[in-house]
């Protein structure tokens, strides 16, 4: 489910459920970003999606693709298994999922996309994530929760 499709009432339930039984006086030690992350799609086909232990703060890993200029494989953390990425001319190549310590030459390309388009899409994704953080902040503020902004930033992974 895309975070910008979550209705306000649903989001209130998600936030309340997530915060239930958490010591908010120790929020920095007991809260993490929501599980999930970036889904790379072409049309309706899912190419890459978050894996075990991935969370929405992993957008920062994806954003490094915009700065890539190396033709060497680099791990892209999306949880495990993960993928590798590298720049090839004006494109970014993505491998299939792996947890193996394969030799880099053995990695198989699963998908290729324009680096420019990827950067544009991640700028949009970042805006959606900031809006999501603001929506959660408003929910917490309405409930008079101390440190509402800091908590919203942590659970949306925007506290970098």
Average pLDDT rating: 93
* Strand adjacency order, main sheet: 3-4-5-6
Give the oligomeric state of the chains in this entry, treating copies of one chain as homo and distinct chains as hetero.
single chain
What is the helical fraction, as a range of percent? 25-40%
The span between the termini is: 24 Å
Largest beta-sheet characterization: 4 strands, antiparallel
Count of discrete alpha- or pi-helical segments spanning 4 or more residues: 5
Low-pLDDT residue intervals, each spanning 5 or more residues: none
Q: What is the domain total for the residues?
A: 1
Number of beta strands: 6
| Structural class category | alpha+beta
What form results from the Cα inertia axes? elongated
Q: What is the percentage of strand-forming residues?
A: 15-25%
Secondary-structure element string: HHEEHEEEEHH
What is the radius of gyration computed over CA atoms, rounded to a whole number of angstroms?
17 Å
In words, what does this structure look like?
The radius of gyration is 17 Å and the shape is elongated. Helix 1 crosses helix 4. The mean pLDDT is 93. The protein has one domain (3-156). The chain is α+β, with helices and mostly antiparallel strands and 160 residues long. It has helices spanning 8-19, 27-30, 59-63, 115-142, 148-156; strands spanning 40-42, 45-48, 74-76, 83-88, 91-95, 109-114. The protein has a four-stranded antiparallel sheet with strand order 3-4-5-6. Strands 1-2 form a two-stranded antiparallel sheet.
């Amino acid at each position: 489910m895309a975070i910008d499709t979550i209705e306000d009432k649903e989001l209130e339930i998600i936030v309340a459920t997530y915060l239930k039984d958490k010591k908010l006086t120790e929020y920095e030690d007991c809260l993490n970003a929501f599980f999930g992350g970036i889904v790379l799609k072409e049309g309706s086909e899912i190419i890459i999606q978050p894996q075990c232990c991935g969370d929405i703060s992993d957008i920062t890993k994806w954003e490094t693709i915009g700065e890539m200029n190396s033709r060497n494989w680099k791990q892209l953390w999306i949880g495990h298994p993960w993928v590798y990425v590298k720049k090839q001319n004006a494109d970014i190549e993505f491998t299939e999922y792996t947890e193996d310590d394969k030799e880099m030459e053995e990695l198989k390309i699963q998908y290729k996309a324009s680096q420019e388009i990827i950067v544009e899409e991640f700028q949009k994704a970042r805006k959606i994530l900031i809006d999501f953080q603001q929506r959660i902040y408003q929910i917490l503020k309405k409930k008079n929760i101390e440190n509402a902004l800091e908590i919203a930033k942590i659970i949306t992974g925007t506290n970098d």
